[in-house]
Give the backbone structure.
Amino acid sequence: MRPDAEVRQDVEAEINWDPSFEFQHDILVSVKDGVVTLDGFTHSYSDRNRAERAAKRVKGVSAIANDITVKLRTQDEKTDPEIARAAISAIRSALPELADNLKIVVREGVVTIEGAVEWNFQREAAEDAVRPTEGIKNLVNLVTLKPKAQAYEIREKIENALTRSAQVEAKRIKVETDGSEVVLSGEVNSWAERWEAERSAWSAPGVTKVTNHIKVGTAA
């Protein structure tokens, strides 16, 4: 396991390296036993999310607590109805075939996406479409998935996907299924490898939940 001080320095460097950040120095980083806590504030939800993604790219990060607060500048503030209209428009533009299955709820700048879709990539696409909306302070994705496949089919497809992936050592990962729910366990060398394994699991048709128990930093 990498020393916490090294992980913290690398997370700070990764955030500061990103030229799209306008106020990197308002983000505070602390690390304990590989768990990174991000604090401070940004002026947009997109920057809050971008800081989290930067931390995930650093080797030795085992988990992240994102406590960054979004403090909108006066000129960026929007009313809840304005945010709702913009978010709905974004979904209709990006996912016209699914727009009728999704609903947007906004309260004090916090946007919640509700509804049901068949694939996880559609759920993620809905979130990706809404995320850039101006005025958002936080985003909650409550879109559910409709199971389509049998458990053995799901497990087989995930195991095959892990084997194909150049970014994952499949032999170190165990896949278990309970209906449409998947549990991953094992050991990998980096957060990126852990994330890729989870992404592969979510890519299987019929998956409604992925529980990731894969450990980071203990693989030989």
Observations:
- Residues 109 and 136 are 5 Å apart (CA to CA).
- The two ends are 11 Å apart (CA to CA).
- The mean pLDDT is 88.
- The helical segments are 4-17, 45-56, 80-94, 120-130, 151-164, 191-202.
